[in-house]
Amino acid sequence: MARVLLTGGAGYIASHTAVVLLERGHEVILLDDFSNAERDVPARLERLTGHNLPVIEADIRDSEAVSAALAAQPVAAVIHFAALKAVGESEADPLRYYDMNIIGTIRLLEAMQAGGVARIVFSSSATVYGQPDSSPIPEHAPTRVQNIYGRTKLVMEDLISDLARTGKLRAAANLRYFNPVGAHPSAMIGETPRGVPNNLMPYLTQVATGRRPCLNVFGTDYATPDGTGVRDYIHVMDLAEAHALALEHILAHDVALTVNLGTGIGISVLEMVQAFERATGRAIPLNISPRRPGDVASYYANPAMAERIFGWKARLNIEDMCRDAWRWEAAKAGINDV
Ligand code: NAD
Ligand code: WQD
What we know:
The structure is a single chain. By secondary structure, the protein is an alpha/beta fold. The protein has two domains: 3-182 and 233-261, Rossmann fold (3-Layer(aba) Sandwich), CATH 3.40.50; 200-231 and 265-302 and 312-333, UDP-galactose 4-epimerase, domain 1. It has eleven helices and 14 strands. The longest helix is centred in the first third of the chain and has 21 residues, at 94-114. The protein is globular, with a radius of gyration of 19 Å. It starts with a strand and ends in a 5-residue tail after the last helix. The relative contact order is 0.14. The structure holds nicotinamide-adenine-dinucleotide and UDP-4-deoxy-4-formamido-beta-L-arabinopyranose.
């Protein structure tokens, strides 16, 4: 088993990954500046797992702080979650995204190199595929940057791949997530979007609590079976398990990998709404709206490589995703009849 540092460790995906890593016997250190995370996440993780996780409050751009953290508690690898991730925000403020995501990654890699840490798992995104030629999308599909956020993800991937190619990193796994949704079944941790959610699932769950009057369906005239956007939604617990397997793989092998993480199943907006209503018994009022600029009609993963290399395949289905997302939202809203 290994000690591993999770940058952005108090965030949505990292916190769920921490649970799985601890369950698999690894030791986890969280590093986060809490710019987009609730401060009680480490305490929730301790209650959920029974483990007291070391927490370092720091910005990944602060090389001294990161180097000190790595010196104080040497780790076998880093899982790099810390980033800004809102597409629209990235288009409005490119330099902030270049600074946080790209400069931040460079500073982290510098601190890792200085500290002798040569293995990394990186949170990339299917956003790098832009408008795909077709789905399912394999890893060798062309990357087409459509926005600043996607640009930063692709640059971060290239930085890591180049360091692996030149031997400065011994192992690296760039993981391209499709659409993570859901929450830990305990409803003790989950996604905490600030303000009006951009993403479908958190908006849907807020409609279900009555916090939002209806779900705006962005476009019903796409070339998809029911005209609404199709995506590859993946349960955050399946994603967390994939990270643990990717970490264990790069601890055992000197490799440089780029791997899709999705179910390989495309689900439309209307199918998601129907699944949510079935799973929760909550009716979701809809407002058919124009397409959202920048949206693509359909993308979903070819997940074969993750299965071949990591022996990983998503196990949780769309009803599991809806049930667990709803449990978390209901818990936050103080609704008990779930
Ligand atoms: P999140 O915002 O919940 O987690 C990111 C964490 O990083 C937060 O806790 C935040 O406080 C922290 N952070 C941000 N900047 C930091 C900095 N400079 N120094 C230290 N900590 C910092 O987001 P998430 O959804 O958990 O995403 C995690 C990673 O996965 C991100 O890299 C994101 O780009 C990627 N990703 C997310 C999705 C998604 O839909 N959620 C999809 C694909 C890829
Ligand atoms: C899903 C579908 C919308 C909200 C985004 C980022 C991507 C990645 C994952 C970080 C689309 C429709 C949505 C709503 C709707 N994040 N929708 N009403 O756009 O596929 O991906 O999150 O890496 O970078 O772009 O996810 O959840 O926003 O949208 O009809 O209120 O739901 O049109 O078809 P998306 P999403």
